[in-house]
Design goal:
The complex is a heterodimer of chains A (about 200) and B (about 220).
Chain A (H helix, E strand, L loop, with lengths): L3 E2 L2 E10 L4 H13 L5 H6 L2 E9 L19 E10 L2 H11 L1 H8 L11 H11 L5 E4 L6 H21 L4 H15 L14
Antiparallel strand pairs in A: 1-2, 2-4, 3-4
Chain B lengths: L3 E2 L2 E9 L10 H11 L7 H4 L3 E9 L18 E9 L2 H11 L1 H8 L11 H11 L5 E4 L6 H20 L5 H16 L22 H6 L2
Classes of the chains: A alpha+beta (about 200), B alpha+beta (about 220).
């Protein structure tokens, strides 16, 4: 079991939904996907590399051979995958604090979802529906989402300065270099080994 | 399409695991045992499938019963869940999996129902598509950069910090010449190896500029 790789945690959860509720959730996701301002809080949290919700209809589990027994399910299932930085507790606390309305909107269609607040009941629910990862890989284990974004900002600023630096006089370069430093100074934090989490 | 966010593709695969009561070790146990010993970091097979940002493999034994009054029900098969966040399109990715890591693919998916083998790449792709579940909502915080450009950006970030620290207080002309040289070297930087926990140059301590410290008290 390995939910953690470097600074990233893999959360996998599955919750049952009554099939008549599934179209409502699909509609909510459709709106979330197309109205980008609704994702602002998720973006601003800035510790989730990638997350996804996948609805598996009760008759949608792949059946690839006649010898494979057919599924007889009454619920549709909502799978949730997240790749986030920090510990399990930090993640759920932050999620519940900042995105409680959004979480309620998404999971209220799942059976027995207690609501994102108070957080104790929410954590108990997530612990119940989560299952552990058997193998987890990340291409940049030492970097958080913020590290990645900062690194790309540094690259853009460097490219701008580098492109124009050949034609500058030393005095002009000196001014441009100072502006570059001012621009990137907040993005020069180091990446490294992650703290030991839960 | 919900599987795509910018240049990142969100792949979700559910492959039914073979249930063979006659085998000495059940397929789900054998699969878990293999995954437990599979190397990670830059020795991971996913490091060879170089367009993989993040991926996971999970053996799902059953669905979860959340308690009464919900109804208790069970899956008839166990499923291997494969979740991957990758650059570009699905078919080139699956082709890369088949060509770069055939032993890994065989070792994992040979425990799954209907797996056609990896030698026949079109059959492998068709098999994976049958197992694919479309993503309903996909969020990628950084969806405009590939794995390689992110790895390079992280290296450049560390190098820039190092350059700044090493070239403080130089006269403008010398600084400009040093920067031109540095910028040229950055441009010809080789590709980075994905998955490394010990990426050289990534962990930098930036020395404090003493004159700035004095100025700011």
């Amino acid at each position: 079991m390995t939910n953690i790789n470097g600074k990233t945690y893999a959360m996998t959860a599955i919750t049952p939904m009554k099939p008549w509720k599934t179209p409502i959730l699909r509609l909510i996701f459709f709106i979330l996907g197309h109205v980008k301002p609704l994702q602002a809080k998720l973006v601003n949290l800035s510790f989730i590399h990638f997350a996804r919700w996948v609805v598996v209809p009760r008759r949608g589990f792949p059946r690839l051979a006649g010898s494979q027994p057919e599924e007889h399910l009454t619920y549709d299932y909502l799978l949730f995958f997240s790749n986030f930085n920090g510990t399990w507790n930090q993640y759920i606390d932050a999620f519940a604090d900042v995105l409680s309305d959004g979480l309620n909107l998404i999971w209220r269609w799942s059976d027995k979802f207690p609501g994102a607040r108070p957080v104790t009941a929410f954590k108990r629910y997530i612990a119940l529906v989560q299952f552990d990862t058997d193998y987890y890989y990340t291409a940049y284990p030492r970097a958080t989402t913020n590290d990645v974004k900062a690194a790309h900002r540094v690259c853009t600023a460097l490219e701008d300065l580098g492109r124009n630096s050949a034609e500058m006089t030393p005095a002009q370069f000196s001014g441009a270099y100072l502006q570059f430093l001012t621009k990137v100074q907040k993005d020069l934090g180091s990446t490294g080994i992650g703290p030991i989490g839960t | 399409m919900a599987n795509q966010s910018g240049c990142v593709y969100g792949l979700t695969i559910l492959s039914p695991v073979i249930d063979d009561p006659k085998s000495d070790i059940s397929h789900d146990c054998a699969l878990r045992s293999y995954l437990a010993t599979l190397p990670n970091g830059h020795h991971s097979p996913f490091a060879k499938i170089s367009s993989t940002h993040m991926s996971r493999l999970v053996v799902m034994d059953d669905v979860v019963f959340v308690g009464v009054p919900a109804r208790e029900e069970h899956l008839q098969s166990k499923y291997l869940v494969f979740e991957s966040n990758l650059d570009g399109e699905l078919e080139p990715y699956l082709t890369m999996m088949a060509q770069k890591t055939p032993e890994f693919v065989d070792a994992v998916w040979s425990h799954c129902v209907g797996y056609p083998g990896v030698r026949d790449v079109p059959a492998w792709i068709a098999y994976m598509k049958k197992c694919q579940i479309d993503t309903t909502f996909f969020f990628a915080d950084v969806n405009t950069h590939t794995v390689q450009s992110t790895l390079k950006a992280l290296r450049i970030q560390a190098s820039v910090a190092h350059f700044i620290a090493e070239h403080q207080g130089l006269p403008a002309a010398e600084l400009q010449a040093a920067f031109r040289d540095f910028f040229g070297r950055i441009k010809s930087m080789p590709d980075e190896e994905p998955g490394r926990h010990d990426a050289p140059g990534a962990h930098q301590v930036i020395p404090l500029n003493k004159s700035m410290a004095a100025h700011n008290g």
